[in-house]
Specification:
Length: about 270
């Protein structure tokens, strides 16, 4: 079996080369400077994975679609699923959308989540693909492209939006990051580390995640509305209004409140005892 990773010279592609080799595949890769082309991989490989930036994914898929046959399996690693899957379904191949919920800096796939969107695929091919990831310790969540993109609007979009707003607020206030750390709590240090983690990465990735997901505007409107309501409650100086706001969110989060407490306690314990 041959697996071809288009964009396999990139960081995410490189992460998965040994994963498929461990599963017994001969892995071919194509990139901007490789001898092998995307078309070569499309013609030679039983499994083809497109691992390129979001904004390039549909274009790359459309280039190889005419070359694919019914016995091949076409996948992608994109953070959005609806449009890439629509493009892949124009081929004759089996189609499964994939989204690894982690970056290329992880040491292994153990306990990591991979979203799997099976669209048009023979059962044995889907089973073989999922088995590759599970053999490495990954968790596979099966869903539809539409549900994936709705979830990503919150899981990625809302999270990144709030993180970037925190960074921009600190910048606008003219706060010195090192100076704030002299007054820091472990929780603030965790939040600040998340800001630093995001800002250390490729801005184009986050631009695509936030600007190309059609469900993002609804999520951001809910965030802006919530921030406005909370600001008004704080400005009222009425503790009862604040308590009501706090309590209804506590009820909505339910048991996860205790889980979050335990998880952050464990993180803080690691930080203070390192």
């Amino acid at each position: 079996m041959k697996a071809g990773i288009i964009g396999g010279t990139g960081k995410m592609g490189q992460l998965f080369v040994p994963v498929f080799e461990q599963a017994g595949y001969e892995v071919l890769v194509s990139g901007r400077r490789t001898i092998l082309t995307n078309a070569d991989l499309a013609r030679q490989c039983e499994l083809i994975i497109v691992s390129v930036p979001i904004r390039d994914t549909v274009r790359v898929i459309e280039e190889i679609v005419p070359l694919l046959a019914r016995n091949q399996l076409l996948c992608d690693f994109t953070s959005l699923k609806v449009k890439p899957v629509e493009a892949m379904l124009k081929s004759k191949a089996n189609v499964v959308g994939l989204h690894p919920m982690f970056g290329p800096t992880v040491s292994s796939l153990k306990s990591q989540t991979i979203i799997v969107c099976p669209l048009r695929v023979e059962e044995h091919l889907l089973h073989r693909l999922v088995a590759v990831f599970r053999a490495e310790g990954a968790r596979c969540t099966l869903t539809t492209p539409e549900e994936h993109d709705r979830m990503m609007a919150v899981v990625q979009g809302l999270t990144h939006y709030v993180t970037l707003c925190m960074a921009e607020s600190i910048r606008r206030l003219g706060m010195n990051i090192d100076a704030t750390r002299e007054f820091t709590s472990p929780v603030y240090q965790i939040e600040l580390s998340l800001v630093g983690r995001l800002l250390s990465q490729d801005p184009d990735l986050y631009a695509d995640i936030l600007q190309q997901n059609p469900y993002i505007p609804e999520v951001l409107e809910a965030c802006r509305s919530s921030a406005g309501d909370l600001a008004a409650i704080i400005g009222s100086h009425d503790p009862e209004l604040f308590r009501a706001f706090f309590t209804r969110n506590n009820r909505d989060f339910g048991p996860f409140c205790d889980e979050g407490q335990k998880m952050t306690d464990a993180l803080i314990e690691c930080m203070v005892n390192k």
